[in-house]
Amino acid sequence: MTAPAIADPRSPIARPRRKGPNLEKWGWIYMRASGVLLIVLIFGHLFVNLVAGDGIRQIDFAFVVGKYASPFWQWWDVLMLWLALIHGANGMRTIINDYVTHNRTRAVLVWAVGIAAAFLILLGTLVVFTFDPCLGVTPDSSLWSMCQG
Q1: In 10 A of CB 25, how many CB atoms?
Q2: Using alpha carbons only, what angle is made at residue 75 by residues 27 and 110, rounded to the nearest 5 degrees?
């Protein structure tokens, strides 16, 4: 009596080897390097915002205004934003490549993730570098005296 045959597992999609740089390898390296850097950036961000000073009680509009008045904190937050969004988009691209078998669907999804990440990077960068606490302040606002000088 012979044992029943086990079906072969689904084999990966055969894609021809392209000439040029190995983008999968560089994506893999980026994920590791950005992950380590993100840990430093995120825990530094959390420490400054939640532990140092008065802790969470210090976070209000004035805290954000003071933080974004410094180019150091602007670049810190922008670097964190860029790394996190590219890291997440690259992870989504990897998941799409692993699980979507139809070539056109895979291409559309990868492009959609890339466009969404690029849009969020652009929007987030604009918010950080063009942040103006006095924009739209009226005379009856509590910020009016601060914005007059």
Answers
A1: 9
A2: 30
Query: Which residues, including other chains, have CB under 8 Å from residue 45's CB and lie 6 or more apart?
Result: 76, 77, 80
Q: What is the pLDDT of residues 9-25, one digit of tens each?
A: 666 666 677 777 878 88
**Domain coordinates in residue numbering, the chain:** 27-134
Mean pLDDT of the chain: 86
H or E stretch including 140?
none
What CATH code would you report for 27-134? Answer: 1.20.1300.10
CA 104, 109, 114, 118 torsion-angle sign: positive
The pLDDT, as a whole number, for residue 76 is 94
Q: Which amino acid is at 21?
A: P
Q: Give the predicted TM-score (pTM) of the model.
A: 0.76
Residues 144, 123: contact at Cβ < 8 Å? no
Question: For residue 15, what pLDDT is reported?
Answer: 65
